[in-house]
Specification:
heterodimer; A: mainly alpha; rod-shaped; B: 565 residues; mainly alpha; two-stranded antiparallel sheet
Chain lengths: 38, 565
């Protein structure tokens, strides 16, 4: 099957970095949430 | 439930069944029935993946989990984004290139027939059992609220969703999941709004978070460390969430046909990848929101009278007058502590800078939890057959006791729809694997496309009936969300391990793969029974253990062959 155009970003690797960044942000957000309210 | 609740519930369920039947038209062959002719856009794939994973258990048990144990359960989902990336890189391109209907078809091409058969059997057993629990979960709601017989409720529950699943296959499943998720999000948003709205004057949303935090319910990130070192038996912390949860998600999304069958419905490789990656981004916030509703319910019961035990149906089964008096005594003591707790929380909120009241709040909560424990123990003694784990009832009890008419009906419908979304996908995949991995492989009779299509419908019906039977035995399993995850962890290590072996160790052949998977599965059973290790680690041990054993067997078989020559 030929590879179709990558949506939004230029390559799939950029998509993977984006997902990793989002994970990092979520964990950091959860950490500060825990610290702030404990 | 009022008349308006019944109307809302009935209309919502009818809407879904009608919509499922309306979307049932598909080509009469295996590709049409199991993969919707591979024609779905990415957003349907995303919603289908989400709808398959989020079962009724998610919406029933998760708020209760936060109520009892706090929000740390969300860490279990941290591994999902990592798994989505690995699957997008290695699994999806391969499945698309080989044009497989089930993931296990690939195993025969890569190893041999016996390995494919064994792994598909592992899938069928584990998915069949957990789908049974997914039928039981919404059924306990009906039996609890309406006093209906649980066995008949299971049959009623399973029967309705089978209608459109048997008729329309994967296409009907995907389209109904889209509508189901829309209604689910609407219902959960309504519930969240109402919990905040019902908090007494002077207790705003942020105040509720502060109280939840001080009482240990906003423990989103935990390290698993204690003064004695790392706690391997700790169920949820960031490490077993990222590693164990990652392995579990990798097995579930990469090697479990109920998910593989969803993203193979995509019209292209890109649409499959996009659906998976976006699922990785939205899963954690979604679980966070559901857990937060549980924390808000917890705070509601800190500032309002709280039941000592949420599953009233069990308490009403106690007949002995002496035991009734003992239970009433505990309940009376608990009620007094509940009043004290409300006063302490008010005192804390009146002057947050003065934290001297926090230890009193915490110790009073501990005393309340001790009362709850004593009540459950006594209840278990009085009614030995009773399920005294009321995690699953906390949210439900709150909905029924405190939410307005109409919304109660909608939330009961939400639980039904969530269950149907995951059960429908599971039945479709169970039938798919049975037809493609067993029937087609071992039947000597060559069938036409139309015959295979009709056979697939019969297998879907048969699996539906099997899962209803399993549901009848699903009582006394504790927290249902954990029961499903524990069950997954027992089998998923091997399921994932065999795919890792296939992808990354091309020199390992069929015999080493087959024997290592059988031995590892037995070893995981033994480990689960004999040790108290946190269940998420079973995935890691199973997957890595299988790979190592297969490499060892590969070398051993190579030597034996060498000596034979």
């Amino acid at each position: 099957m030929p590879e179709e155009k990558v949506p939004v970003f230029k390559t799939w690797n950029q998509w993977y970095v984006f997902v990793l960044l989002m994970l990092g942000l979520m964990i950091a957000g959860c950490y500060f949430f825990t610290q702030y309210f404990s | 439930m009022s008349q308006i609740d019944w109307i809302v519930l009935g209309l919502t369920l009818l809407l879904i069944i009608g919509y499922g039947l309306y979307k049932s038209k598909t080509s009469r062959d295996l590709d049409g029935y199991f993969l919707g002719n591979r024609a779905m856009p990415w957003y349907l794939v995303l919603l289908s993946i989400m709808g398959t994973q989020a079962s009724a258990i998610t919406f029933l048990s998760t708020p209760g989990q936060a109520f009892e144990d706090g929000m740390r359960f969300v860490q279990y989902y941290f591994g999902v984004p990592l798994a989505m990336i690995v699957i997008s890189v290695f699994f999806v391109p391969l499945y698309h290139r080989l044009k497989v209907i089930t993931a296990y078809e690939y195993l025969e091409q890569r190893f041999d027939r016996k390995t494919r058969t064994f792994i598909s059997l592992i899938f069928l057993v584990s998915r069949g059992l957990s789908t049974g629990i997914s039928i039981y979960a919404p059924s306990i709601i009906l039996s609890s609220i309406l006093g209906w017989n649980i066995y008949w409720t299971n049959i009623f529950m399973g029967g309705l969703l089978i209608v459109y699943t048997v008729t329309g296959g994967a296409k009907a499943v995907a389209y109904t999941q889209q509508l189901q998720l829309l209604i689910i999000f609407l219902g959960m948003f309504g519930a969240a709004y109402m919990v905040v709205h019902l908090l007494p004057d002077g207790v705003a949303f942020v105040d509720a978070l502060k109280v939840g935090g001080k009482l240990g319910r906003l423990n989103v990130i935990t390290s698993g460390q204690s003064p004695e070192g790392f706690q391997w038996s700790d169920r949820y912390n960031i490490w077993n969430g990222l590693i164990g949860g990652g392995f579990l998600a990798l097995s579930y999304f990469g090697a479990d046909q109920s998910q593989v069958g969803r993203y193979l419905t995509a019209r292209s490789l890109s649409e499959s990848r996009l659906g998976l990656l976006l699922n990785g981004v939205v899963k954690v916030p979604m679980q966070f929101a559901i857990l937060l509703i549980g924390v808000l319910v917890f705070v509601y019961y800190q500032v309002n009278p709280s039941p000592v035990f949420f599953n009233k149906a069990v308490s009403s089964k106690v007949i002995s007058p002496a035991e009734k008096i003992a239970l009433d005594t505990i309940e009376y003591g608990f009620a007094q502590k509940s009043v004290t707790q409300a006063a302490l929380v008010r005192q804390y909120l009146a002057n947050e800078a003065d934290t001297s009241v926090v230890p009193a709040m915490r110790s009073n909560l501990q005393a309340m939890n001790a009362d709850r424990k004593a009540y459950k123990e006594l209840l278990k003694k009085a009614v030995p057959s009773a399920d005294t784990n009321d995690t699953n009832y906390v949210f439900l009890r709150f909905v029924i006791d405190h939410l307005p008419h109409g919304l109660v009906g909608l939330l009961i419908a939400v639980i039904f729809l969530a269950a149907w979304g995951s059960i429908a996908a599971a039945l479709n995949s169970l039938s798919g694997s049975t037809v493609c991995d067993l029937h087609q492989v071992y039947s000597k009779k060559k069938l036409t496309n139309d015959q295979e299509f009709r056979l697939s419908r019969w297998y879907t019906l048969a699996w539906g009936l099997f899962c209803i039977v399993v549901a009848q035995f699903a009582n006394n399993m504790g927290s249902l969300v954990e029961a499903v995850n524990v069950l997954g962890s027992i089998f998923y290590g091997v399921l994932l391990g065999i795919f890792l072996l296939a992808f990354f160790f091309p020199h390992v052949k069929g015999n080493a793969a087959f024997y290592s998977s059988v031995i590892t599965q037995v070893a995981i059973f033994v480990l689960f029974r004999a040790s108290s290790i946190g269940f998420l680690w079973l995935n890691v041990i199973g997957a890595l253990g299988l790979v190592l054993l297969a490499l060892l067997l590969h070398v051993t078989f190579g030597r034996v062959r060498g000596e034979g020559k």
